[in-house]
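pasting for ref. prot 1 ->
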Amino acid sequence: MEKALRVYAQVLRLVRRLPKDSRPYYAKYARENFVNYRDVDASDSKALDELFHRAYNHSLWVLNKYSVDETAAQKLKETCFGR
């Protein structure tokens, strides 16, 4: 659960790098997705790893869409993949 909260916080930090008019949409989108998956069994590491991988990949997609440097997601990558 603690790792999920760190990932969520990192995603919200990345949202702040987006253009002002798109921030509310992506902040709400991120929150809804994390809420939707809160029932995932915390002991199911495979399911959690898959969700973290998806969160990272989607974040990269959004950053690229708005031409934000991907290196901004380095901390999210470290949090998601433990590197």
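and prot 2 ->
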Amino acid sequence: MALVWRSVFLVNLCKQANSPHVILHFNSGQPRCFAYWQEFQKCYAKTDSPKECTLPANDYLECLHHPKEMARAAIVQQEYARQVEKASKENKKTADAVADSVTVGVGLIQRQGSEDSKSS
């Protein structure tokens, strides 16, 4: 009885348009995860062991909360940050090497010591 009440409660909750977790399809007017919920509910009603319905349950939860997508996005973001940091360190090394090097003149400005060395 508790399972029936819970499933009816969740279906009614998903049908509420003002719920922040419900995104309605433009064409059908159903919540975006309603099809996954129906698959899970059908599996749960037909089976004797609830463990057999883990795949539809995981699909439904992924549709609702996107945990795998969020984890993948976090990994991609961390890798991007690592590459940016590595590139900035390499650019800093290059900039430091250029800053520490001797300035090469092109001969347009006469230096004090260079006039004396040319006349000798």
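The two ends are 110 Å apart (CA to CA).
Residues 29-65 form one domain.
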